[in-house]
C-alpha cells in the first residue's frame, strides 16, 4: 500500500464538498502554494504546530515541557517558538491551559479503520445523497496506493466518493482511482500559465492536461474556480478560462468559489503573514461572471458549493 499519508482534519456534516451531507477527509501536503489558500496548514507534508499567542499568559509550562528547547518567553512575556527546532511532537499542547497550541497533521488510520469511522454517518449520506469527500491540501500528492484502497473499501460498503483535487499530480494517480470515484471536484485557478505561476508557484500545464484526460475518461467532473479579486476575476481572465474549458472539456458543471479571508488567523498561528490585499468579488461581479459562463453555453453554474 506504500507510505501512510498524513491527515489534518476530518470534517463531518459538510455541505460544501459535493452533493448532500458529506464527511470530508483533509490530507496534508500540496504541490501548489496559492496566495489565497485558506488552509495554510495543509500545504506542508509534515505535521506543524499552530500557536495562538494572543491568548498566552506566559505561564511557562510549555517552555519547561519542550524536549527540543524550542520555546522561550519573549520580551512581551509570551511564548515564542523556534520553528527550526520544533518537531511538532505535541508535548506542549495539552498542558497549555489557555488552549494556545495545536498540532496539525497525524498519520492516517489504516483504510479499513478509517472506513469504519466514516461509516458512522452513513444514514446521513443515504438520506441526503451525500458521501465521503477526500480533499486537502492535495489528497493525491502523497498517495502511493492508500487512496485506491480507501476508495475501493468505501465503494464496497455502498458509500459514494468524491475527490477534490488541484490536478497537479501524475495522471496515473488519478487514473487508478477512476473505478471507485463518483465525482471529481477539479480546481482550476487561471488559464494563463504566467499568471498561474505567479499565483500558485507552479505551471498549470499538467493541471489542464489531466482535466482533459479526466473528461475523455467519461468521469463525472465539476470544475471549481476560486474567484479572488483583483487577481483572477477580471473578464479577460474569465474569458480565457472559458475558452480553455470549451477546448479541453466542453460545458462541464462549474462552481465559482468567492474568496474569503477565514484562513488569515491560521497564517498568524504558523508565524506566516496573510495577504491583506485580496478581496471578495462584489455580488454584481459574481453575477456577471456567472452570466459569462451561461452565455458561453455552460448550463450548470453555481456560486459557492
Ligand atoms: S503553556 Fe500556553 S499560556 Fe503558558 S506560556 Fe505556553 S503558550 Fe503561553
Ligand atoms: S510540539 Fe514538541 S517540539 Fe514543538 S514546541 Fe511543542 S513540545 Fe516543543
Ligand atoms: S491547491 Fe488548494 S490546498 Fe493547495 S495551496 Fe492551493 S488552495 Fe491551498
TrEMBL record:
Q: Which UniProt keywords apply?
A: 4Fe-4S, Iron, Iron-sulfur, Metal-binding, Oxidoreductase, S-adenosyl-L-methionine
Catalytic activity field: glycyl-[protein] + reduced [flavodoxin] + S-adenosyl-L-methionine = glycin-2-yl radical-[protein] + semiquinone [flavodoxin] + 5'-deoxyadenosine + L-methionine + H(+)
Q: Which InterPro entries match?
A: 4Fe4S_Fe-S-bd, 4Fe4S_Fe_S_CS, Aldolase_TIM, BssD/PflA/YjjW, Organic_radical-activating, Organic_radical_activase, Radical_activat_CS, rSAM
Q: What cofactors does the UniProt entry give for this protein?
A: [4Fe-4S] cluster
Gene3D superfamilies documented for this protein:
3.30.70.20, Aldolase class I
Q: What are the residue boundaries of the 4Fe-4S ferredoxin-type domain, all occurrences included?
A: 47-76, 77-106
| UniProt domain Radical SAM core: residue ranges | 16-299
Transmembrane recorded as keyword:
no
Q: Which SUPFAM superfamilies match?
A: 4Fe-4S ferredoxins, Radical SAM enzymes
PANTHER family the record matches: PYRUVATE FORMATE-LYASE 2-ACTIVATING ENZYME (PTHR30352:SF4), PYRUVATE FORMATE-LYASE-ACTIVATING ENZYME (PTHR30352)
Q: Which NCBIfam families match?
A: PFLE_PFLC
Q: Which family does it belong to?
A: Belongs to the organic radical-activating enzymes family.
What is the name listed in the Swiss-Prot or TrEMBL entry for this protein?
A: Glycyl-radical enzyme activating protein
